[in-house]
Amino acid sequence: MKRIIFELPKYIVADAGYGSEPNYDDVLNVRERIPLITYNQYRKEKTKKYKNDPFKTANWEYDEVTDSFICPNNRRLNYVYDSNRTDKYGFKRTFKVYECEDCSDCPLRSSCTKAAEGKNRKLFYNEKWEYQKQYVRKKLSNEKTGEIYGKRKIDVEPVFGFLKANLGFTRMSVRGKPKVHNELGFALMAVNLRKYSAINNENGTFSSDELRKRLCLSFLIITTFFIHLRLVMSQPLF
């Protein structure tokens, strides 16, 4: 988008599917922008049930002096080593590994861990990821940036709804980039004509009945053409 269309805006807004450590790292450090992107557990972490669950490690007390966590049975998980992992895309993550001092006779063991008998509970803590989540939570709780994120549903989702529900555009009916580019162009043309008509009608630009009729006719033609074009393209050649 930056190379072909325009300079990226100050805020990068997307849904929870894009809320990951690599994406946050890219937006913050490479693009030098502010991510307004939730992560998968964002809404769940805000629920009362989650906050009151003693077995969620996010609710465990942390002792900064000894660099240790305290479990629901009031036992310490002490820092033991760092673990570096690289995913299939080549992104590297660093985890601080904490291990409980002794889980052998813990009455809460079955609710706390699935570790084999004789093994102690371990906690893998990603400092960078936790900082990123805290940063995003702070931005989304801010009135200004929270309002910007809220507009995503208003601006983006109705477009998909119109394409899928009204135009029946749920998948491409052609193959090859040039053909896909053309088919998508017709779909977006119909969307833009609809939006253009709504905005100008609201502003009084189309006060003339003749102008309004012409635009409605144009919209009807392009929509009908698009639907019939897709029907033709979706038919087998033989």
Produce a short descriptive summary:
The protein has 238 residues and is of the alpha+beta class.
Tell me the helix content: 40-55%
* Strand order, largest beta sheet: 3-4-5-6-7
Give the C-alpha Rg.
26 Å
The number of helical elements comes to 9
Roughly what fraction of the amino acids lie in strands? 15-25%
Stretches where pLDDT falls below 50 for ≥5 residues?
none
Roughly what is the average pLDDT, rounded to an integer?
85
Order of helices and strands: EHEHHEEEEHEHHHHH
Number of strands: 7
Main sheet makeup: 5 strands, antiparallel
Note down, in words, how this protein is organized.
With 238 residues, this protein is of the alpha+beta class. It contains 9 helices and 7 strands; from the N terminus they run E-H-E-H-H-E-E-E-E-H-E-H-H-H-H-H. The chain folds into 2 domains: 11-153, no CATH class; 156-233. It has helices at residues 21-30, 42-45, 48-51, 109-112, 127-141, 143-155, 157-166, 177-203, 209-233; strands at residues 11-14, 34-37, 61-63, 68-70, 76-86, 92-100, 122-125. Helix 1 links the parallel strand 1 (11-14) and strand 2. Helix 8 packs antiparallel against helix 9. It is elongated.
Layout of helices and strands, plus pairs?
Layout: E1 11-14, H1 21-30, E2 34-37, H2 42-45, H3 48-51, E3 61-63, E4 68-70, E5 76-86, E6 92-100, H4 109-112, E7 122-125, H5 127-141, H6 143-155, H7 157-166, H8 177-203, H9 209-233
Parallel strand pairs: 1-2
Antiparallel strand pairs: 3-4, 4-5, 5-6, 6-7
Helix pairs in contact: 8-9
